Amino acid sequence: MSAEHLGAEGPEVGTGLTGRSSELDLVRAVIDDTARLGGSLTLFGDPGVGKSALLDAAADLARARGMRTLRAAGAQFEANIAFAGLNQLLVPLVPLFAELGPDHESALRVALGFGDGATPSRILISTAVVSLLLLAAREQPLVAIIDDVQWLDDASADVLSFVARRVAGTRVRMLSAVRTTGEPLHIRGDVNSLTMHSLDDSESEALLLARYPDLAERVRRRIVSEAQGNPLALVELPATLTSDRYPTADALPTVLPLTERLTRMFSARIATLAPETRDLLLLLALDGSGQAMSAESVVGPDAANQLDIAERERIVVVDSRHSVVFRHPLVRSAVVELARPEQRRRAHRALAGCRRADPGRRAWHLADASFGPDEEVATLLQHESIQALKRGDPSAAVAAMTRSADLSPDPEHRSQRLAGAAYFAAEVMGDLQSVSQLLTDARRLDANVGSLATASAAASLMLYSDADVVSAFRVLTTALRAPEAEPTADEINSAIWVLSVIASLNGRKEMWDPYLELVDRYRDMLPEGLLVRSEVVSNPALVSLEALHTLDQEIATLATELDPGQIIRVGYVANDVDRLADLREPLLRVWQDAARTGAVASVTNALMLLCAESYLAGRWDDTQRFAEEGLERAESYGYVNFVWFLHYSKALAAAALGQQEEAEELLEVMLAWSIPRQAFIVPQHVYRVRTLAAIGRGDYETAYAEATKISPRGLEPGTARQLQLFVAYDLVEAAVRTGRSDQARDYVAAMLRMGITKISSRWAMLVAGAQGLVSEGEVASAHFERALAAAPDNLWPFERGRVLLAHGEHLRRERATVESRIRINAALTIFDRLRAAPWAERARNELGATGVSRRQTGSTDVLLTPQELQIAALAASGLTNKAIGERLHLSARTVSGHLYNVFPKLGVTARAGLRDALTALTAQEDLPPGGVVRQDPGGR
């Protein structure tokens, strides 16, 4: 095996072995004799761990240094031939025999079979070999490399061990490798040694990526798990997983097949065992549960004896709980590989009949025991596929459904099951290549291609691979309106879900109306969650309290939900009605679990929803990080439909941060992508980002123009979509700032008519804030205070900051200077924390308008924190700690703690000094005359 086998990465000789830099350094030190290591080194390690590759790299390194190399390798069939290994090593030096002394020449010729004579002593032969190697190294340094020493004949091993201990200080180097698996090897004498360990997971991933860059992620992870860091296994296992044997990446077998080379390497000890022991090992390998009891119930009382033999032979390990573990997963594979097909089928039948077998294992054992099509087993596997999806194992779901199709005697059933597997592969796994192949097979069996499952899978493929909205819509609505066969509830559920995604992307009445009509047609067959989805996605403004209650109940169940598809579906509904904060943990779990299992569609959907959640939560670095990872996955796997939303998430965060050029570049990409695909909802998202960016830079005329592109006829209950609601507050602010007061009041009236405050505390805050924007005097202040009291402090920070800023601006105009500063400084604190540069700049300008210099802005040396200033003002007005706490939703103890910090900052020792201290503070900051602390009317 050459250095390339372990992932050569660079042109420098001997430096390209993945994960072997320290081993290479030691080999280099021996060859160069830089560390005075005695000129010899023996490598120890399991089969396939990379000993031979390291010896190859050593040979390349030696040749690059102008050294001569001699090589030999032990062979099992020559182990009983005396001096066979020595003969192999020294044949190139036969011409030099004549230059040795007569005794040494004669000893070598006789020992190596080149002449006749009396049998020489072992010591004479050993000294003759030392002399020969020194003679050969006289003009050119020499390296002797011996692989597989465990199979050398004893005579050669003894002589070479003698030589290895005597090359120190000479121009001869000796490197050897010994396999350690099996019985411990008798080590001859003291030698420098290095035990080579397996690669870790990251090194294994790197090796696979270097050798097989196109390998599906979940296949790569499976191979990493099975190989357990064995480089040879990592390199060879992918060769067994050819597309003709396993047409989809999800159909990988329970026990991976081995190449002939791996079989030879891992099966040597198994082949010598008695048939009874091998039968037991086969049952354990195929069972996969690791429980000796399963095999005992099949084999009988002799199982314990056979297990003892297998453990004594170092093939398995039995722990204190009677769990059986193969010493290496590939030993397990070798057990299966050595068994004949009829033996494997017999073992599967026996395991299926075991009373301890769970339904899923039983279905798979029956499938693997089948000679041909079997509808009963196909039905069991179809059920197992659904259960696997609910357990959160989408890869197993696709594999079970695909195998169920293989076992279906009826072509129509087979076609439907292939289509079901294709749907799972598209919606959860993201394996679009497999989807295409599965659909092709389904159509081949069903010329009419009339099943709803086929239509759903085909529509998903069109949607995700090229965002062909029109074709996907036509295929699915045709199948739903006139299904060829009686569809199942699951098929209806899947089809309606895909149709909702299509209608959402198009965003036009021409698709919404047929979607709602079909929802109504199949209402009795749809689960509550999907009915809520239809109510929310088409018009969140009209969502009923009952639907929101149902959604909240569904969200509450997700803490223990394993099915990633269910979490994603609920997540998309929650996104439309501001409940993603309650799904953060389940979505993070989907992201992590799906990334581990290779479910690309699930992980990308989760990342998109996490983008939306983190944006509203003000974690904009997370938004951009999630979007970047999602883009990498979507683009790598051809999920075109996801790319636009991930660009949108990045652009939205960039606009909020003030990175307007970066945002605009992303928006142009979105527009160019959406127009030819009739994905009309995408430009709406573009207008939303441009509205936000324009408000940030104070360009309210542009903001109004962009927002009215989303709501050209204003805001009305019957026409409001999610994006119209998202820009409602922006529309009001832009209208107010551009002198369109009547329009602004109309927009607020429409928001109140829609009743959107019931959706979430965010909407309650924004609607009340919009009322404050269009009102005057104390009425406006009351609306702003109600807005700030409507939502918890820790939710919706960006929107909260905007309402605080608007309130502060209003108070400044009303000459309530101290209260104005409290609000504006609180807004500035939020914007600085979020790094919302345009809004922070606005807040600083507003503070400047209250008399605070830019040098003072935000300085805790001059200003108290917003909450401290607020509490100090209320305490100065005469309120008790308890009264202040009730007003600010704080405990009296917390209020006391804040005052404890405030007193030294203001240079006072009691509450009585607060009013004068605050008055003095306003005077220091150049407030207009009469700027005194008023009693805060309540709120934050």
Task: Give the overall pLDDT as a whole number.
Answer: 82
SS strand fraction: under 5%
The number of helical segments is 46
Give the overall shape.
globular
Oligomer: single chain
Helix content: 55-70%
Care to count the β-strands?
7
The value of Rg in angstroms is 38 Å
**Which class best fits the helix and strand makeup?**
mainly alpha
N-to-C span: 72 Å
Name the poorly predicted regions: 1-15, 182-188, 243-249, 858-862, 924-940
> What strand line-up does the widest sheet have?
2-3-4-1-5
* Biggest beta-sheet profile: 5 strands, parallel
InterPro entries: AAA_16, P-loop_NTPase, Sig_transdc_resp-reg_C-effctor, TPR-like_helical_dom_sf, Tscrpt_reg_LuxR_C, WH-like_DNA-bd_sf
Organism: Streptomyces aureus
Protein name: AAA family ATPase
Keywords: ATP-binding, Nucleotide-binding
